[in-house]
Amino acid sequence: MLQKAYLRVLEKASPETIRCYFIAFFQDDKLVGTAIMQKAELYAKDMFRKNGASLWKQTLRKLLSLLLKGNILVLGNLMHTGQHGYSFDVASVKFSVFFEALIAAMEHLEKEIKNTTGKHIRLYLLKDFYETDNMVKNHSRLKELQFSKAWAQPNMVLDVSSGWNSTKAYVNDLVAKYRKRYKTARKKLKPTETRELDLEAITNESFVIYRLYKNVSDNAKFNTFILPENHFSELKKQMGDGFKLFGYYLNNELIGFYSLLLNAKTLETYFLGYDVKYQYRKQLYLNMLYDMLEYAVNRNYTQVVYARTAMEIKSSVGAKPVGMSMYLKHTNPLLNALLKPIFNVMSPKQKWEERNPFGK
Fold first, then answer.
1. HSE value, Cβ hemisphere, 13 Å, CA-based, for 284
2. Are strands 303-307 and 266-274 parallel, antiparallel or unpaired?
3. What is the pLDDT of residues 217-238, one digit of tens each?
4. Is the pTM value of this prediction over 0.85?
5. Distance of alpha carbon 344 from alpha carbon 63, whole angstroms
6. Handedness of CA 126, 132, 137, 143 (dihedral sign)
């Protein structure tokens, strides 16, 4: 996620509201670290797209919009779950030293943005850290700098068993209830055909792919951006076999798709979309989860990162929740004091039942 091919995608096909900055850190003329920072313009219409909230929730949303609306500066990548914001040479630099350089770079970038565009940064966001990450271990320093810790939804991760040398082996490990569910979902998918799309096919189907993506994106309770229509074709153009997009065709009509980023031995699931009229009838979303896992099993990946959202159904295929946190700081000291309590109200712990398809 910090290699040139992917960074070119961020440069060429990011949402209109996001601008990317690529930072290099040197020590004695030697490159010792890199980072992605993003200036994002947040608008209430993009953040809260799903209607039907209670009057109390609508009031809180308006208050949160006042706090967040405008330009924020992000360490990390808003378009992908996980710590994909920085990397450094641990043999040459201590994290405490690198951290101070990161914060200095953000402050410098804030001033540069103000001087060149006239835009004021309202909020700093450091995103998506596991509890084992150096950033979390540096909590006391973050507190000194007036950053507040907030919990994001967990990342749903499936560790691929070494015993799964085929999809059949995975299915055999499922308890009877989930084995039946797997077979039912596969049966409902028929006679849908799954095809891998190359660059030409992605380009030709770009309008439909984008419409299917928007069907899912617009149904999210909270979102910070809308991808541009050329995002998927640019990914394929820049990353080649490092990016995969699979389409579901019924009577030669594209009714759904999912995409993958191949990250060493980790399979990172990416954006997907589907036609809502086929979602329940064909169990498209559940079949996508199975297909992603099947891709990983057949190609010896050790892990499938299903990302956040839809935790219960992802746990039903074997994924486990891994907690992630983020750090926020408003540039207005008074509003900064209000930030954490409002986030806690707006992002309460979601009640969901974790499934265990293996019965252990």
1. 25
2. parallel
3. 988 766 778 999 999 999 999 9
4. yes
5. 13
6. positive
